[in-house]
Amino acid sequence: LLRAGLALIVLGHGSLVLGAIVHGSVLRHVAGTGRTVTPEYAAANVVSVGSGLLSIALGIVAILVSHNPPRAALHWTLLSVSLLNLLLSTACSVGLVLAIALTIHGRGRHLVVGCNSSVLPADTRDAIVTNECPFNTTRIYDTALALWIPSLVLVVTEVVLSGRCCLAALIFRGIRPCACSYGKEQV
C-alpha cells in the first residue's frame, strides 16, 4: 500500500504537469480570442488535471493507511477516495482516447476548427501559418499527440493503482468477497 501511495503521488504529479503543458502549448493557441475549441479537448484536459489532483490525494491517504492500519476512519476514506479516483481516472482515459481518436481520424482538423481558414489543407500537418491561423498547426497536431499518449499511459496506471487501493480498503474492512481470499497481514 505504501508503494502504491508513492506511485500515485508521482503519477498524479505527472498527469497534472502533462495536463498543464497540453493547456499551455496546445489548447491556449487553439482556444484564443475569437476561436473555439471542441468540448472534447477541453473536457479531457480538465478531467486529466482533476484526476491528477485526486491521485495525489489518494496517494497521501494510502500512505497514511499503511502507517496506521488499525484506524477504521482511514479505511473508509481510502475506500471512498479510491473509488472516486477509479471513476475519474477511467473517465479521463476514455476522454483521452476520444481526443486522440478525433485528432488522428480528422487529421488534426478538430484542433484547428476555430481558424475558419479556406487555405488550410485537409491534413493539418501540411498547413502553414496564416493570418487567420497565427500558430503552426503542424506543431499543434504533433504536440497534442506527443503529450496525450504519455498522459493516457499515466492515467491507465492510475486506474490500476486505484483499483488496488480499493481492494486493500475492502480487505481492511473485511467486506466480502475480498476478505475471504486475503488476510489483513497479507495486505
Automatic annotation (TrEMBL):
<keyword id="KW-0812">Transmembrane</keyword>
<feature type="transmembrane region" description="Helical">
    <location>
        <begin position="43"/>
        <end position="65"/>
    </location>
</feature>
<dbReference type="InterPro" id="IPR020977">
    <property type="entry name" value="Beta-casein-like"/>
</dbReference>
<comment type="similarity">
    <text>Belongs to the TMEM54 family.</text>
</comment>
<keyword id="KW-1133">Transmembrane helix</keyword>
<feature type="transmembrane region" description="Helical">
    <location>
        <begin position="77"/>
        <end position="104"/>
    </location>
</feature>
<protein>
    <submittedName>
        <fullName>KCP3 protein</fullName>
    </submittedName>
</protein>
<dbReference type="GO" id="GO:0016020">
    <property type="term" value="C:membrane"/>
</dbReference>
<keyword id="KW-0472">Membrane</keyword>
<dbReference type="Pfam" id="PF12304">
    <property type="entry name" value="BCLP"/>
</dbReference>
